[in-house]
């Protein structure tokens, strides 16, 4: 990009006035506002229902709660089974994120810095696991984890989600590591750093953003995946989705409870996005722009 | 020119990944392969069945073959429709994201939120939203005189599932494209301004070519995502009405865990997996080829 920076130097002063947004801000603002509206109307509807009593919900349509109540949330907060399901979900997501990033780091470094026998087929094989349909694994995972005694534990779900999160973390980290000049590795070696010391003291801080983004994606895909999470658990490690399916009872749907639980599952995601908001765009491009 | 050092000791770095992923992928896959070539009369007695299950699956005149073909075609149609909507819409949204100030962060956080909602909750949101008694969309459409009933009418079910997927995933394409747009140096826009280029030709000749790489990644991720979709449509329609929204994963889970039809489900799994593997391989060779061309 050296040629472009030479070109931009004399024109730098003009660039502020040339920004297309300065001329017509209205069109794009309306566009993004409409899209955000499209995203949030269904979410608002869930929030709306979560503050209603079940009689209110079934007595007809109203754009906001006529008799606002926290009762649906109270029922979740006082029930130890609901607590346990939230704790289970957060635990397996946390374990999965830590394991995925930890094992992916050295591998991503190897793929970025070295050529070795079988590197390309190996990378393809990893990538192919990212694309494998979880439905294909539902039945064999059930057998595997029953046989190893891990069935119905948070470890079963944490390990099962490694199937797609480890390759994803390798892919993202490889993109970010390739953005760090190789001269840094060489300079550190000349300065007498041993490899482990270089990796921890110098290299990890340099790719801190990439680690954050990789952890964010592992969190995201483990938090949202429900097919494997509910197939591999029954009682002890029941995740939120497992508890939510209880609201579908023979007596009819408990919409208030279901909506309140749904609203609560959005909170961890919203918090995590807030932390990575400055890196989120690059992260979605897997560090590859 | 690839200047990376050749070092086979780099394999040591890859060993932890190999152990974790092999445990999670190869061991279960071997179970599936095992079932796919055997049959059982119960009591855990298995006998060799050769390629019988596969012949059954790939022959559209058998019951299983018909089911597989139906689900495959429905799934391909679904993937094609959501890609055709989400890709242009995602590009359009990315062009609308503010360029500077606090509004950038706000817009990114707001549009990313649907991506972090658990899949079953996405299903619950749209199941609720499209109900004709208590959902805003369902009530609104009915009031407007549109015949709408997700549980009875296949067209309504498809409509909700497609809108749901657009709602759920367009943001991912928008964020990808936004990252691609941010990587375009200002100088390109300045040069276009000097040449007197209009907004369309700036998009056509500068922005779109620079988005190619992220769009390929985005389209692959969206194809795969829609091709293995399970929880969201299952929550809304349960695969119905009838078989109308029974996609490959929904059909497979019903066969494997519901009916415990091991042989057929195993053959189904392998063929299903082989299709995704082929698409993945085409993508992989395409991108490595494109990268080499870029480097040259």
Question: Descriptors for this entry?
Answer:
heterodimer; A: 289 residues; mainly alpha; MetI-like fold; two-stranded antiparallel ribbon; 16 helices; 3 strands; 2% strand; globular; disordered N terminus; B: 296 residues
Largest interface: A-B, 108 and 108 residues
Element string of chain B (H = helix, E = strand): EHEEHHHHHHHHHHH
CATH class of the largest domain in chain A: Mainly Alpha
Strand order of the largest sheet of chain B: 2-3
Number of helices of chain A: 16
Q: Total helix count of chain B?
A: 12
Main sheet record of chain A: 2 strands, antiparallel
Domain count of chain A: the total is 2
Spatial shape of chain A = globular
Helix content of chain B: over 70%
What does the oligomeric state look like here? Answer: heterodimer
Structural class of chain A: mainly alpha
CATH-level-2 architecture of chain B: Orthogonal Bundle
CATH class of chain B reads: Mainly Alpha
Strand segment count of chain A: 3
Weakly predicted, low-confidence segments of chain A: 1-22
The figure for the number of domains of chain B is 1
Q: Kindly report the name of the CATH homologous superfamily of chain B.
A: MetI-like
Distance between the termini of chain B: 7 Å
Q: What gap, in angstroms, lies between the N and C termini of chain A? A: 13 Å
Family (chain B): Belongs to the binding-protein-dependent transport system permease family.
Transmembrane segments (chain B): 12-37, 76-97, 104-129, 157-181, 214-231, 265-284
Keywords (chain B): Membrane, Transmembrane, Transmembrane helix, Transport
Domain ABC transmembrane type-1 (chain B): 72-283
């Amino acid at each position: 990009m050296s040629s472009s920076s030479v070109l931009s130097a004399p024109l730098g002063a003009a660039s502020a006035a040339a920004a297309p947004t300065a001329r017509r801000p209205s069109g794009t603002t309306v566009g993004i506002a409409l899209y955000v509206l499209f995203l949030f109307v269904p979410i608002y509807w869930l929030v709306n229902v979560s503050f209603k009593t079940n009689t209110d919900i079934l007595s007809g349509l109203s754009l906001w709660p006529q008799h606002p109540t926290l009762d649906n949330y109270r029922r979740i907060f006082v029930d130890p089974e609901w607590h346990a399901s939230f704790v289970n979900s957060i635990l397996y997501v946390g374990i999965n994120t830590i394991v995925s990033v930890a094992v992916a780091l050295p591998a991503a470094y190897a793929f970025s810095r070295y050529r070795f026998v079988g590197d390309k087929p190996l990378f393809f094989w990893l990538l192919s696991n990212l694309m494998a349909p979880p439905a294909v694994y539902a039945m064999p995972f059930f057998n595997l984890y029953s046989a190893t005694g891990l069935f119905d534990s948070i470890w079963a779900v944490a390990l099962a989600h490694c199937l797609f999160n480890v390759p994803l973390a390798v892919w993202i980290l490889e993109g970010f590591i390739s953005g760090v000049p190789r001269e840094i590795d060489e300079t550190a070696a000349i300065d007498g750093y041993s490899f482990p010391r270089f990796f921890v003291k110098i290299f990890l801080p340099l790719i801190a953003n990439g680690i954050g983004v990789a952890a964010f994606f592992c969190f995201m895909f483990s938090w949202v995946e429900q097919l494997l999470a509910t197939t591999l658990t029954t009682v002890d490690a029941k995740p939120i989705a497992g508890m939510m399916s209880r609201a579908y009872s023979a007596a009819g749907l408990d919409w208030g409870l279901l909506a309140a639980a749904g609203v609560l599952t959005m909170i961890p995601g919203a918090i995590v996005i807030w932390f990575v908001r400055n890196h989120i765009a690059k992260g979605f491009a897997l560090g590859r722009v | 020119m690839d200047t990376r050092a050749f070092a086979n000791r780099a394999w040591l770095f890859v060993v932890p990944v190999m152990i974790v992923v092999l445990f999670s992928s190869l061991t279960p896959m071997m179970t599936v392969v095992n079932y796919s070539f055997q049959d059982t009369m119960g009591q855990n007695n298995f006998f060799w069945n050769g390629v019988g299950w596969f012949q059954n699956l790939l022959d559209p005149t058998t019951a299983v073959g018909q089911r597989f073909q139906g689900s495959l075609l429905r799934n391909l149609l679904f993937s094609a429709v959501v890609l055709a909507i989400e890709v242009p819409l995602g590009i359009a949204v990315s062009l609308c994201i503010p360029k500077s100030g606090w509004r950038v962060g706000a817009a990114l956080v707001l549009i990313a939120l649907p991506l972090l909602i658990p899949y079953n909750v996405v299903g619950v949101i749209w199941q609720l939203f499209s109900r004709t008694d208590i959902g805003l969309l369902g009530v609104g459409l009915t009031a407007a005189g549109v015949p709408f009933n997700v549980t009875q009418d296949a067209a309504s079910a498809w409509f909700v599932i497609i809108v749901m997927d657009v709602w759920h995933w367009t943001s991912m394409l928008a964020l990808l494209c936004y990252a691609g747009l941010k990587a375009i140096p200002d100088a390109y826009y300045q040069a276009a301004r000097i040449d007197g280029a209009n907004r369309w030709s700036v998009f056509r000749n500068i922005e779109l070519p620079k988005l190619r790489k992220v769009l390929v990644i985005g389209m692959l991720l969206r194809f795969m995502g829609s091709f293995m979709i399970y929880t969201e449509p299952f929550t809304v329609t349960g695969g119905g009405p009838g078989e109308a929204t029974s996609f490959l994963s929904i059909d497979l889970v019903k066969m494997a865990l519901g009916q415990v039809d091991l042989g057929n489900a195993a053959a189904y799994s392998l063929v299903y997996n082989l299709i995704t593997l082929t698409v993945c391989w085409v993508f992989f060779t395409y991108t490595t080829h494109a990268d080499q061309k870029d480097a040259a």
